[in-house]
Amino acid sequence: MKSLGAVLILVVAASAAAAAPIAPDAAALFADVRAKSHADAWRDVILLRTVGTSRSSGLDGESVLVEDVRDGRIDERARYPVFALRDVWDGRVAWHQGNSGGVHRLDGADSTRHFIGNAWLAKRAWLKPDLDGAFAGPVRHEAGGDELTVVPRGGEPMTLSFDAATRDLVRIVRTRPTSLETTTLTDYREVDGLRLPFTIATTDSDGNASTTTVARYERLARATADLFVPPRTPDDTRIGTRPVTIPLDLADGVLTIEARLDGRGPYRFILDTGGHAIVSPAIAKELGLVASGAGQSGGAGEGTLTEQYTRIARVDLGGTDQRGFDAGGVTMTDQHFFVLDLGYPTFERGREAPIAGLLGVELFERLGVRIDYRARRLTLTSFARHRFARDAVVTPLMFDADIPLVTGILGGRAGLFALDTGNAGSTLVQHHWAERVGLAAAMKAGVETASFGAGGLSRNWASRLEPFEIGGARIEHQFGRYAEDRRGAFSSRTEAGNIGTDLLANFTIDFDYRRGLMGWQYVPGHVQEPFPRGGLRVLKDRPEDALVVSVSADSPAAAAGIEAKDRLVAIDGVPTSELSGGDIGNVFRRAPGTTVRLTVRRDERTVETSLVLRELLP
What is the dihedral of CA 48, 54, 57, 58, to 10 degrees? Predict the structure, then answer.
C-alpha cells in the first residue's frame, strides 16, 4: 500500500488539474459513505471540541482540539508534564508553539498544503457531494475496505481508507517531507447523531507515535476570543535596551557560544538555527536535572536517537565573559531542554571540555539575532528594537518545521534551502530536488565521501557548486555535497538542500523570526576551507583512536591501502588519542604534496603506511 500510495501521489499531483474531479467509482464510494455516516447530521455543526488524553514520546498528557466545521480553522493543544504544544490554522497561515513556548509561523509551501489538507478533514469534506472541490479516485479494494487518493484544492494528497461495512474513515496516509505518516481512527460511536472515533493513533516511518483517547466531544455555538489566533511566546526573556553582543567561536566550522545554566558554567553550546535547546546527559546529571519521557530524534543520517525532556530554571547569555563585547546580558527563565546524547563525535573537543549541547530555535523565537562570522560575534536584540543594516539584502524567511528556509539558486535552478548554522561544513544538496531539476547525475559524478550527524553516517558525493546565488550575492567556486539518504533530514522531498558554515560565512546575517525576514550583508574575502586532500573520512568516535568510515576511490588513502573500518591510532607519530576530530580533519587539508604518515590498526594488526596529499576536486 505504501509504495502504491507514493506513486499515486506523484501522478495525482501532476495531473489533478486536468483530470475529472471525482472518478466514477469514487463518487459511488462517497455516496455510500454519506448514507452510512449520517452526513446530514453534520449540517448543523458549527464548532466541534474534542477533549481527551494523549500518549506521546513516553509521556501522558491532556489534549484539546477545536475544529471549525464550516471553514476548517483548527486549534490543537496538548499539555504534558514537562511541556505544552499548540498548532493553529487560522484559514490562511499556520502557527506552531513548541516545547519551550516559543512561536513561529509554518508558512512554507509544504506546511500550507498540509494544513489545507487538515482543514479539508476538519470540514468533513468527504461527506459533501462535491468533496469541497477535491480530486478523488480511483478506488482500490483491500481486505476489509476500500482506499483511494484524495487531493484537496491547494492541499497535499492523502490516501483515505473506509471500512467495508460501516464506511467509517479508518485510516489516513500522508507523505510528509521526510516520512510517511499514518493515522488510524477506531472505536467509532454515535454522539448526537454523529459517527465519531474515540481512539486516534498516528505513527510515522521515523518511529514516532502518539495516541489520543477521546473522553468526550462537544458542540460549540461560537468561538471564544482565544481560539484560532496566533499563540504568544511567554514573557520569559529579559534583555536591556542595548543590544547584547557575545563572542562566537568558529573552531573547525562549529559555531558555538557560552551560556550559564542555573548559575553554573559557563558551558559551551552549538548555536543551531535548525535545532532545539539540548543538554547532554552528562551536564543534566551535573546539574541534577530530572528528565522524563522517551521520544525519538533524528538529523543528518538515517538513524534516530532517544530523547528525554527537562526544564532549566535559568539560562544566562553574555555579561560574564572576560572577552565580552558588552556588559549586559540575556536571561531566559523556565526553559525546556531536550536531554539527548548526540554522540562523542558531536560533543568532543579534544583537550577542551566537551560541548554541553545546543541552543536553537527557542533563542531565535525570542530575540532578533545577528551572526557576524568575520568578527566572530553574536548580537541579540529585542524584536521591538531589532533593525536590519542599511545595506542588508532583506529576504523572506519561511518554515515547514523548525528550520528556517530561504530561496537560493544553484546552477540556475531555484530551490528552497534550509539555513543550518549547526552544519559545520559545506552546503548539502538533497536528491529529490536535484533529480527534479536535472542536477543529480552531475553531482553524483563527484568524489564519493561521507558526513556524520545526529542520525549517523550519510553517504555523500562532493563537487563544485557553480554558481550559488543567495542573499543578493553570487558565490563562486564553492564545493558542496550531494546525498541520497532515504531517511532523516537529508531525505527531504521538499527542500533543495541544507546550507552550512562554508557558505554562510560569506555574510553577516540577521534573523527576525517574528517578522519572517532575514538580512544578508555580503562580506568579501571569505575563503572556504579546502576539500580534504587525503581521500578518507575519519570519525573521532572515541577517545583512544579514530575510525575510518570511508575511502574515496583513486585517492591517496586508497593508494596507501587504507580501508573503511580501519582504526587510525597515530598521525605523523602523534597518537590520535591526543587529537580532536577537528585536528585530524585539518591534517588532511594541508598543502598538496605533503606526506602524512599513518599508523592503522586492522583486525588486531598494526600497519604503518603513508599517503601524499593532492587535490581531489577540480
Answer: 180
Q: Are 399 and 108 in contact (CB under 8 A)?
A: yes
In the predicted model, is pLDDT for residue 296 greater than 80?
A: no
* Closest residue by Cα to residue 244 from 332, 339, 346: 332
- The pLDDT tens digits of the residues spanning 379-406 come to 999 999 999 999 999 999 999 999 999 9
Structural domains of the chain, with CATH: 2-220 (2.50.20.10), 237-381 (2.40.70.10), 393-522 (2.40.70.10), 536-612 (2.30.42.10)
Burial class (CB in 10 A: 0-12, 13-18, 19+), 526: middle
Give the Cα separation of 157 and 431 in Å (integer): 21
How far apart (Å, rounded) are the C-alpha atoms in residues 98 and 83? 8
| 32 φ/ψ angles, rounded to the nearest 5 degrees | -65, -40
Helix or strand holding residue 209 (H, E): strand 209-220
Confirm if 519 and 389 have CB atoms less than 8 A apart: yes
525-543 pLDDT, tens digit each: 999 999 999 999 999 999 9
Please write the tens of the pLDDT for every residue from 2-24: 333 333 333 334 334 444 489 99
CA angle 50, 53, 56 (to 5 degrees): 120
